[in-house]
Design goal:
heterodimer, A: alpha/beta, Rossmann fold, 9-stranded mixed β-sheet, globular, B: Rossmann fold, 2 domains, 7-stranded parallel β-sheet, 5-stranded parallel β-sheet, 24% helix, Rossmann-like_a/b/a_fold (chain A), ETF_a/b_N (chain A), transport (chain A)
């Protein structure tokens, strides 16, 4: 069984986000970019499926600017076998919407015929939490979102999902789309020899036109602003003073 | 055209707070119909009918829609979509699972976690863990969106809409529910509680987390946790507050042993009053706290419990 893992190049989660002065978005020029943390978990899970003998090949795909090659090389260094880059824009500030990404991925799925697609539950830049669900809809496949445990058993997968009240276990028909949550695994670091080896692994470059997909956005950005700031308050010196402030000044207890 | 609001129903009970706050968010868009789906949802449908601003409740009394299974529920919603300009729901795990699927089936882009409905086409939403707020205008014929309910005030329950039973496409046959592992608790629900007490990595162990729970019980509060505390196994996943957990905006948020990573702040910075208790006076949580107490939580929290 082949596993397909979409990965996204996003601002590194440790970088302080700055809104551009013209309000068009967040400044991404000359900032550190990394693989979306949720996608790292998906890549790790795919590699583990291969190590267990359940998967035969791990194919990673990224959609965005040409620099996304770096993200794909990271996935290859972790242990993925081959990569596909769909160059959908040459502007680092253009975010390809989940609907367009899902359409491109659906086209890749038709070519590659994977038995499962493992994706991150959300990207930490647009925080949409949508691509997996949308891909599943377009393919007419089952979907397993926010997954913290995955067990594949023949023509079905049993997954544990992180939901509002706790955990939910469902069984989904294969092939399926799994969107992964934080606690599924801890991704490995790529070793130096593997980073060197990844440079020789195949990386195909395509465009949306190759798949006949229009990536024009449906949402236009009216403005982007910094959130209303919150000022630091006062330090209290004792528990008694804290209680007094909460009772008399804030009136919340 | 009207708005179709997809209600969260768990074990036959309506998630009233989530639905009532979503109703407040979409009030400017016109007539609202609420969809209650799943066998045993009679009481939930009746409760939804009482919420102010609801003009009709659609009740799909079919087992296929129990447990919020995405494939069957999305097919039901798509079947109803023709009569609506807007399809929405609270940004709960259920709607985050179902509504992007609905949007793709309708060939429209979903708008997740809207914090304001500006007009029929324009929505405000946080991006980058709330470090930026973006206003987006949709060019799609139908808008499909989820609402981050934390900052909205629930509508009152003084209405009396009709409940109409509807059919649907039924079981999609792609997935099956196995079990729910949900802890029952007498505490208030995290996303609607007036007070939340949260513990972080500083709490140190699952056993010590009892202290956080005791303080919460003393205050009649819900219990929350940082990602670090959940990942370390001190607290269950459904207590997580933050970018990838729950978003809360209580009257009082007490952060104990939480350093205040931006991913955590994303989930609680709209709280009215924030208290931080941390022994590291350089912890970033103090930059957003109204009242900061630099102290060892293992002495401060027992003292707080005793003196409250």
């Amino acid at each position: 069984m082949k596993v397909l893992v979409p990965v996204k190049r996003v601002i590194d989660y440790n970088v302080k986000v700055r809104v551009k002065a013209d309000g068009s978005g967040v400044d991404l020029a000359n900032v550190k970019m990394s693989m979306n943390p949720f996608d790292e978990i998906a890549v790790e899970e795919a590699i583990r499926l291969k190590e267990k003998g359940i998967a035969t090949e791990v194919v990673v795909v990224s959609i965005g600017v040409k620099q996304s090659q770096e993200t794909l090389r990271t996935a290859l260094a972790m242990g993925a076998d081959r990569a596909i880059l769909i160059e959908a824009t040459d502007n680092v500030h253009t975010d390809i919407e989940p609907l367009s990404v899902a359409k491109l991925l659906a086209a890749v799925v038709k070519e590659e015929a994977p038995g499962i697609v493992l994706c991150g539950k959300q990207a930490i830049d647009n925080d949409m939490n949508a691509t997996g669900q949308m891909l599943s809809a377009l393919l007419g496949w089952s979907q397993a979102t926010f997954v913290s445990e995955l067990a594949i058993d023949g023509d079905k997968a049993v997954v544990t999902r992180e939901v509002d009240g706790g955990l939910q276990t469902i069984s989904v028909k294969m092939p399926t789309i799994v969107s992964v949550d934080l606690r599924l695994n801890e991704p490995r670091y790529a070793s130096l020899p593997n980073i060197m080896k990844a440079k020789a692994k195949p990386l195909a470059i395509k465009t949306p036109a190759d798949f006949g997909v229009d990536v024009a956005p449906r949402l236009s950005i009216v403005k982007t602003v910094e959130p209303a700031g919150r000022k630091a308050g006062v330090k209290v010196s004792s528990v008694a003073e804290l209680i007094a402030k909460l009772k008399d000044e804030a009136g919340v207890i | 055209m009207a708005v179709l609001l997809i209600a969260d129903v768990n074990e036959g009970a309506l998630a009233t707070d989530a639905v009532a706050k979503t109703l407040a968010a979409v009030a400017s868009l016109g007539e609202v119909h609420v969809l209650v789906a799943g066998t045993g949802g009679d009481a939930a449908a009746a409760e939804a009918a009482k919420l102010s601003g609801v003009s009709k409740v659609l009740f799909a009394d079919d087992h296929a829609y129990c447990h919020g299974m995405a494939e069957s529920t999305a097919a039901l919603v798509v079947g109803l979509a023709g009569g609506y300009s807007h399809i929405c729901g609270a940004a709960t795990a259920f709607n985050k699972n179902v509504l992007p699927r609905v949007a793709a089936l309708l060939d429209v882009m979903v708008i997740s976690d809207a914090t304001a409905v500006i007009d029929a086409d324009t929505f405000e939403r946080p991006i980058y863990a709330g470090n930026a707020v973006q206003t987006v205008k949709s060019a799609d014929a139908k808008k499909v969106f989820t609402v981050r309910t934390a900052t909205f005030t629930a509508v009152e329950a003084n209405g009396s809409a009709a409940v109409e039973k509807i059919g649907g496409p039924g079981e999609a046959g792609l997935s099956a529910w196995v079990e729910d592992k949900t802890a029952t608790s007498d505490r208030p629900e995290l996303t609607s509680a007036g007070i939340v007490v949260s513990g972080g990595r500083g709490v140190g162990s699952k056993e010590s987390f009892d202290l956080i729970e005791k303080l919460a019980d003393k205050l009649g509060a819900a219990v929350g946790a940082s990602r670090a505390a959940v990942d370390s196994g001190y607290a269950p996943n459904d207590w997580q507050v933050g970018q990838t957990g729950k978003v809360v905006a209580p009257q009082l948020y007490v952060a104990v042993g939480i350093s205040g990573a931006i991913q955590h702040l994303a989930g609680m910075k709209d709280s009215k009053v924030i208290v931080a208790i941390n022994k590291d006076e350089e912890a970033p949580i103090f930059q957003v706290a109204d009242y900061g107490l630099v102290a060892d939580l293992f002495t401060a929290v027992p003292e707080l419990i005793e003196k409250l």
